[in-house]
Specification:
This protein is of the alpha/beta class. It has 2 domains: 74 residues, no CATH class; 109 residues, Leucine Aminopeptidase, subunit E, domain 1 (3-Layer(aba) Sandwich), CATH 3.40.220. 46% of the residues lie in helices and 10% in strands. Helix 3 runs antiparallel to helix 4.
């Protein structure tokens, strides 16, 4: 029996997509390689359609146009890949609903006010357990990080979220557990705040609440 050749992801990356052999392309489909699927899926659909058209005369049957079939199949495949990729991104990056202890490299990210009066909600937990400092309303303090949410509308929160994301990018050794900031006494909903964290989706050291993921995935 002929031994099937295995192609690693590294092998695929080294070769230009247009130079892949049929075996490599088929292996790429089996491995759900997004680049290969995007490049070749539509064309392979057309080949399959032409074969079956000759056999079953598909072009004369309602709703069986090649372009429609291929577009629908490609759209379905794209959605499947996108959902799969999002699940991969979320894996291990959903902030627990309740946090009462942290690992050495974890940071509790909470919503604050500019005056740093950490009197209630997640801010109080940050002050009592994770080193938040009264009078400090922004940034890293102990094992916590404050993002002001009480000073106005969503656009007044955006600069502080962007500053936080930059900080997290500069500290890949730390893992930031973002709580549902702004969704308590500040009065916002997840749909208001979650889009501010769009750029955090790609950052492996930032966890987001499930409610935020639902808005940005």
């Amino acid at each position: 029996m002929k031994k099937e050749k295995n192609f690693s992801e590294t092998d695929f990356q080294k070769k230009a997509l247009e130079s892949l052999s049929d075996d490599e392309i088929l292996q790429g489909f089996k491995d759900a390689d997004a680049r290969i699927v995007r490049e070749y899926y539509y064309g392979y659909c057309r080949v399959a359609y032409c074969i079956y058209d000759k056999r079953y005369d598909l072009q004369h049957k309602p709703g069986m146009m090649a372009s429609r079939i291929c577009n629908e199949e490609a759209a379905e495949e794209s959605n499947t890949l996108n959902n799969s990729n999002m699940e991969d991104k979320k894996k291990g990056r959903i902030t627990p609903r309740w946090i009462d202890s942290l690992k050495e490299n974890e940071i509790f990210v909470f919503g604050s006010n500019l005056a740093g009066m950490h009197g209630g909600g997640a801010a109080r937990i940050a002050r009592l357990h994770f080193g938040a400092v009264m009078g400090k309303g922004v940034g890293l303090q102990g094992q916590s990080y404050a993002i002001p949410t009480m000073q106005g509308g969503v656009e007044t929160i955006r600069p502080y979220v962007e500053e936080f994301i930059i900080f997290a990018h500069q500290h890949p050794d730390l893992h930031f557990l973002v709580t549902p900031i702004g969704c308590g006494i500040a009065g916002f909903e997840a749909e208001d705040i979650a889009p501010l964290f769009e750029n955090a989706k790609e950052m492996k050291n930032i966890s987001l609440p499930e409610s935020f993921w639902e808005m940005i995935e």
